[in-house]
Amino acid sequence: MRRIRANAIAILTVAWILGTFYYLWQDNKPQSSPSSSASQTRGRGHGQKVVSGRLEIHRDDRTIPGVVHLCHQTEISSLQLLGGLDEKAYLAGKQLKPGDDPYRDHAFNLQESDRLGSERAIRDTRHYRCASLNYDADLPSTSIIITFHNEARSTLLRTIKSVLMRSPPSLIQEIILIDDFSSDPEDCQLLSQIPKVRCLRNGRREGLIRSRVRGANTASASILTFLDSHCEVNTDWLQPMIQRVKEDHTRVVSPIIDVISLDNFAYLAASADLRGGFDWSLHFKWEQIPIEQKMARSDPTQPIRTPVIAGGIFVMDKSWFNHLGQYDTHMDIWGGENFELSFRVWMCGGSLEILPCSRVGHVFRKRHPYDFPEGNALTYIKNTRRAAEVWMDEYKQYYYSARPSAQGKAFGSIADRLTLRRKLNCKPFRWYMENVYPELRVPEQEAVSSVLKQGGLCLETRGTEALGLAECRTIGISRPHSQRWELIEPLLRQQDLCLAISAFTAGSKVKMEPCNAKEPRQKWKPKGTALQHMVSGLCLDSQTPTGPPVITQCRPQMASQSWEPQIIT
Ligand code: LR7
Ligand code: MN
């Protein structure tokens, strides 16, 4: 009897567990037709690392026709969309010649892109719950800004057309194209024939950063939307982003960026569990949302906070963009501006998020299809160095250790950007590290043991707190701990005790106390051969060879302020 009851309980438990799993699975299942899914990664940009994530592959033939689906209220025909532009002639004007390498000019398969035509259906890749969300009826309109340099005609036209087809017309104030000095000026002229499209051509190559600023400066809507020139926007992509910015103008929002295959142009759903991150060399990467945040997400339509954005596709209030200093226009061509913008937004009072109910496809490439007048590596170093120097405070040392080749490379003047940072009263990078990106680990520093020598004497500890100078005892391993220091910026350590000032005024004694890297009294940095207390700006001074060390006004050359570290092994 007892066994039967135990069996029944076991069966019921298993059934309950299976039922729960089935329910959760149903909840996550995409709404539309069955399709193959495969474990892959989000596409990548140049040198970008990726983490594995789920990426569902959906072939075009299984999709709902995009135009019918999207234009249900307006039924805009292709002809009306393009106004005076003769699409066929435009596309035929530049075509691959037989025998040409289809990857040569654009680093994607041009033949496939051309074959697709200018409009095609793509699968609605959002979580099904997104479709039932409501947005304000009176959302403000936006200026779409697309900068391009020698973009293929078919990809650029598909970007523009997808915007016109898949956005409520009232939300599109205008589409501003900036032709960044492409070889053929005709593309710009021809595309200007499309209603709502304006095209400005640069008189010389400026790079995407200055081009976007030019576009933003001429925009007439109160909200800016940036897109790359090889995108396809998906169903209801715009409303969630404008809604979030309307509710709080300090939010800078981006969509989930789906992958358009550079080989066959299949539109692939990207994982909804990723956010933007980076390593200390300032390379962008997609990374999993931290597990605690993932567990706390009961609603898959909720925004995802992100430490950085990929950079190309985002929506931002125009006055907030201007207030925060637009972009650093001394950055050239490509790269780094996404970090600079992301740090600035977070540190100066805004926030960055990815909205899962907004999806935009992008052709991820493996190389740049265009040239960099100053070279790719130097340009990336210049741009990221500017970002590090202006925004990363003492953490820039990790950037330089991860990218030693950046040291000594020219990066121009950053005075204007430092003034901007002061004027906006932005928080320190430490705040960003603690509150926005605590998952970014600071590299372990190798502890170097040394004595701190002044003349023939060495700095030593006496008892638990006190310090003084004494004759150096230099016999290797047997050296007593009291003269052995570890310099791990900003701390000056002896095991668990650190050198601290007792007060912030000149003449205050120093003492030893338990280490705490956040304690302002314990922060030191080398200044020549002197040791400067970072907060008070005063220097460690022995005053007299026998007296207790104190902090005094820094005077370079003063023997009593000179502490030569001598490494001991
Ligand atoms: O000199 C140039 N002038 C330009 O107008 C160089 C480029 N461009 C245009 C170019 O035609 C394109 O429309 O600028 C746009 C971006 O250039 P891409 O497509 O070569 O860049 P990307 O997609 O490899 O790079 C990502 O990182 C860049 C860093 O500077 C920019 O922020 C891109 O906008 C950004 N793209 C995205 O965020 C899309 C998602 C990719 C990822 C990750
Ligand atoms: Mn791109």
Rg calc:
30 Å
Query: Please, how many helices?
Result: 16
* Proportion of residues in extended strands: 15-25%
Q: In terms of per-residue confidence, which ranges show pLDDT below 50 for 5 or more consecutive residues?
A: 21-75
Structure description:
- With 569 residues, this protein is α+β, with helices and mostly antiparallel strands.
- The protein is 27% helix and 24% strand.
- The strands form six sheets. Strands 15, 16, 17, 18, 19, 20, 21 and 26 form an eight-stranded antiparallel sheet that branches. Strands 1, 2, 7, 8, 9, 12 and 14 form a seven-stranded mixed sheet that branches. The chain has a five-stranded mixed sheet with strand order 5-4-3-6-13, sandwiched between helices.
- Helix 12 (337-347) runs parallel beside helix 13 (376-391).
- The longest helix is centred in the N-terminal third of the chain and has 27 residues, at 2-28.
- It is elongated and about 90 Å long.
- Mean pLDDT is 87; it is low at 21-75.
- Bound molecules: ligand LR7 and manganese (II) ion (MN).
- Manganese (II) ion binds at residues 228, 230, 312, 362.
- Its EC number is 2.4.1.-.
